[in-house]
Structures are given as structure tokens and as C-alpha cells.
Amino acid sequence: MDKPKKSVRRRTAGVTIDEVAALAGVSPMTVSRVINQGKVRDVTRERVLRAVRELGYTPNLAASSLAAAQHTRIALIYTNPSGAYLRELLVGLLRVASSSAIQLVIDYWDNLDAESERRAARALAGRVDGVILPPPLCESQAAVSELVKAGIPVVAIASGRLSEALSCVRIDDFSAGREMTDHLLRQGHTRIGFIRGRDDLSASALRYDGFVTALREAGLAVDPGLVQHGDYTYRSGLAAAEKLLSQRRPPTAIFASNDDMGAAAISVAHRRGLEVPRDLSVVGFDDTSAATTVWPELTTIHQPIASMANAAVDILLRTIRRPAADATVLRDHVMPHRLIARDSVAAPPRRR
């Protein structure tokens, strides 16, 4: 994918619902109905969605619910190995909390076994109205089952494993993984290393599946020696990159499943005297601060983590405010991702 023009990115940041309505030829209320999955004609819905895509509009899904958020306690439970990912998530949640009466409760569960997670979930259920579970806890059956049993609404962030017990806010990790791999293939890379994320997370598996699919569509076989395992930490990225670059025929590009591991791969390349991207291309995933605090800056997949937090709060508030007689409405909210092309990718050395 080509690098997006700066002017387009500046324009996207300021797009309003009124501009979407004007382009689609409808009222702002109609745009709101489409965004909130209300009833409109199919032809109108398609016209609005086309305008949303063209302008790059990202709705503030939490805004409609903030006024009714007084005295609502929402918990974020985390045990995330990526500090950069957690910072992005907290930014989104703190923005919502600072402009409303939401009370944000932050709970840290470090290396708890299943039974300890159940006990912690039971204790938390008596103190909060809703819970947000980012990775890896988004797929903890022990925590989810206890919270659902207690009648606490739960929203998982970045889980690719859909459940009948909780709502989910995510991106299409499979498509994103395939898109990034296609980007490397178009540059001429055919020997691509891949650093996987945690094996117990479905999003990690989906990113790898997208990688494999893109290779096969290009007529390339997957070389098991070019696939190394990580756990989304910088340290695991160092170990995986060392194994990849120590091979007799090292890869010409490395696709890391998150930015922390991608930054680690660049560090290993520098230590080995390799210039990125002249000798080795490196890409990451998430577009966290880790992608822009390394040199060269990482080409990556932008996952709108802060906006995903806003959407999670919106879903929780809608659920908390529903009449008691209504059935629970679970949502699978898929947010758009985009490939951010920076300076860490070039054609492989032999093509130059």
C-alpha cells in the first residue's frame, strides 16, 4: 500500500458528521442512524457508508452515552506485556472518563491462574457496573464466565474469538496480516520472516493466517524456519530476530506481530551491522509509540486502540442503561485498520 498523503491525514482528523451528511446528501440524523445500526433504506445506508469511507470519518461512539454515565463504574483489567499498547488504551479510556462522570477502575492481574482469576472476578463484580478486557484477558474463560454469571456486562478488546457471552471491539486481524504481507511481496520480498505473538490469543493466530494466505496466493510456500515465536514483548522480539538473522539464508524482511517486537528486530539488525531498510526490511503491527521511537520508523498496521476503548465504553453504557426487561444485546464491532508506510521497508538487496 502506498504511503498516505499527509494532507489526507490532516483532513481525516477534522471530519465531522455534518460533512459526511453533506457528501451523502442526507441529514446528520440519518448518518447517526447508519453509524448506530438504526433502520434506514439499504441504498441510503450504502451512500452514507461510502461517504464515511471517502472522508475517513471515525465517529465518537461514546459521545451519545456520556451524559448518562453518572455514577457508572467501569473497570479495565490488564496484564499486557506491551507497555506501548497499554498506554494507547489508557489514553482512550482517560479521555472518556475526563469528560464524563464515569469512574474508571483499573485492576492489574499479574500471572494469575484460572482459579485466582475467578476469585478476582467475583470480588470485582460487586464493585463495578461493567468491565473492559484487553488482551490477553479478553480470552480468559475463567474471568469472563464469572463476570457474566454475576450479570456484569463485559466488552473484549482485540479478540478474534467471537463469543455468545460478551461483546467485542476489534479490527480484522486476518485482512490486516494479509495486507501487510502483500505490501512486502509487492516490494519484491519472497523470503519473509514472521515473528508470531502469543499462541493463546486468537488475534495472533489470525495475523499469522493472513500472512500464510498472502504467501500462498503469491505461489510461495511457508518456510517453517522463517517463523519464530514471541509473546508481544520487546525481549521476545530480540530472541526471535536473532534466530531469524542467524540462519544461513536469512530473510530479507521480517514481519513482527506487534511494534514492540518489530522495534526489537530493528535493534538486532543494527547490532549485526545491517542497515534497515537497505539490507533488511522490518514491519510491525498496532502503530503504537514503539513504532515511531525507533530509527527508521516502523511501517505498521494502524489499530485505532484509543478509539476502540471509546467504542467499548459506549457499548457498556448502552448495555448498562437498557431496561431490565430487555434482552442483552451483544455486539461485534469491527473497526477499520490501515497500513502506515514509513521508512523501514524497501526492495530486497538483490533487486537493487
TrEMBL record:
<dbReference type="GO" id="GO:0000976">
    <property type="term" value="F:transcription cis-regulatory region binding"/>
</dbReference>
<dbReference type="InterPro" id="IPR000843">
    <property type="entry name" value="HTH_LacI"/>
</dbReference>
<dbReference type="InterPro" id="IPR010982">
    <property type="entry name" value="Lambda_DNA-bd_dom_sf"/>
</dbReference>
<dbReference type="GO" id="GO:0003700">
    <property type="term" value="F:DNA-binding transcription factor activity"/>
</dbReference>
<feature type="domain" description="HTH lacI-type">
    <location>
        <begin position="15"/>
        <end position="68"/>
    </location>
</feature>
<keyword id="KW-0805">Transcription regulation</keyword>
<keyword id="KW-0238">DNA-binding</keyword>
<protein>
    <submittedName>
        <fullName>LacI family DNA-binding transcriptional regulator</fullName>
    </submittedName>
</protein>
<dbReference type="InterPro" id="IPR046335">
    <property type="entry name" value="LacI/GalR-like_sensor"/>
</dbReference>
<dbReference type="Pfam" id="PF00356">
    <property type="entry name" value="LacI"/>
</dbReference>
<dbReference type="InterPro" id="IPR028082">
    <property type="entry name" value="Peripla_BP_I"/>
</dbReference>
<dbReference type="Pfam" id="PF13377">
    <property type="entry name" value="Peripla_BP_3"/>
</dbReference>
<keyword id="KW-0804">Transcription</keyword>
